Amino acid sequence: MNIQRWIARREPNWQRLDTLLKQVEKKGLKSVRAQEIRELASLYRSVAADLARARTQQIGQTLIQSLQNLTTRGYTHIYQGSRRQEWRAALEFYRWGLPSVVQQTFVYIATATGLFLLGALVAWWYAWQDPTFMSLVVPQHLISQVRDEHKLWMGSIVGVEPLASSSIMINNLSVSFGAVAGGISAGAYTTYLMVFNGLLIGAVGTLVGQNNLAYPFWAFVFPHGALELPAIFFAGGAGLLLARAILFPGKYRRGDALKFYGSQAAQLVFGIVPMLIIAGTIEGFFSPNPNVPNPIKYLVGLGLFIFLVLYCNRKRR
């Protein structure tokens, strides 16, 4: 390779990249036009290739150092700028995008909520009519603890809060992702999860009510349940969106319907994850804390739920 000829041919690119980088460093990325941003990215890739070639051919340490400096500066502005844009996009999504998609998909979320409440109502009815029904839904050791020892099970969390909190988060995420993925079964598995979880909470609520433990039980549930249950309903709505695409694609081809409704479902999932992380933290550290009075727990739960309702009803002006 003729080194001097290669340097003469490539040097204009290096100088142009240096000029663009100096402009960005002095005035910021916003001072560069869209076309120049594309040029900047293209020149960065070109100079990175030149650096690799210079190292392979061992073309002088001074030139290699100069190209290394150019690529480092280019990487800093291109990729750190990209990360900043990603953070801004994420912030914009949680400010306005998530409330918008919740409003657009409210019918599906409400349907998932209805399935959950139906399961809870069925469990409440049968638990009062048939004493043996309780053992079909609620683990026997919980039934014995409530009926025989007349106490709740939440005290087992105290002392192992970090472990309990992480386990709770993993379990809730598993249930939620299962509800979303259940949409691929034409919504059958999503429906099952919504109804079954409703049956479980309905049966447990009836059990503690029959044994005069409803007040402390719901004081435990309210703080984290204000976020956890809506997150599960969002997951159910996401699963039903996928089911809609499969069963009733409407004016779309089925593949296009899956892309459209799948995009809305994915946005709901992005909203579910932080909700469940916060709920798991509350359930592990705050809800079972015996030093927090029960009225405070009810107030915190009510406050979180009101905040969530107001947040989901936000509209961009």
What profile does the largest beta sheet have? none
What's the helical proportion of residues?
over 70%
* Number of domain modules: 2
Q: Count every helix, treating DSSP H or I runs of 4 or more residues as helices.
A: 11
Question: How do the SSEs run, as a string of H and E?
Answer: HHHHHHHHHHH
Please identify the oligomeric state: single chain
* Cα end-to-end separation: 62 Å
Approximate shape: elongated
Low-confidence stretches: none
Q: Total strand count, please?
A: 0
Briefly note the structural class of the backbone. Answer: mainly alpha
Mean pLDDT: 86
Radius of gyration: 28 Å
* Proportion of beta-strand residues: under 5%
Transmembrane segments: 105-127, 163-184, 191-209, 229-247, 268-286, 298-314
Pfam families: SpoIIM
Keywords: Membrane, Transmembrane, Transmembrane helix
Protein name: Stage II sporulation protein M
How is this structure best described in words?
This protein is mainly alpha-helical. It is built from eleven helices and no strands. It has helices at residues 3-27, 34-57, 61-104, 106-129, 134-137, 140-147, 161-181, 188-210, 214-247, 254-285, 294-312. Helix 4 crosses helix 8 and helix 9 (214-247) runs antiparallel to helix 10 (254-285). The mean pLDDT is 86.
Which helices and strands occur, and which strands form pairs?
Blueprint: H1 3-27, H2 34-57, H3 61-104, H4 106-129, H5 134-137, H6 140-147, H7 161-181, H8 188-210, H9 214-247, H10 254-285, H11 294-312
Helix pairs in contact: 1-2, 1-3, 2-3, 3-10, 4-8, 4-9, 7-8, 7-9, 7-10, 8-9, 9-10, 9-11
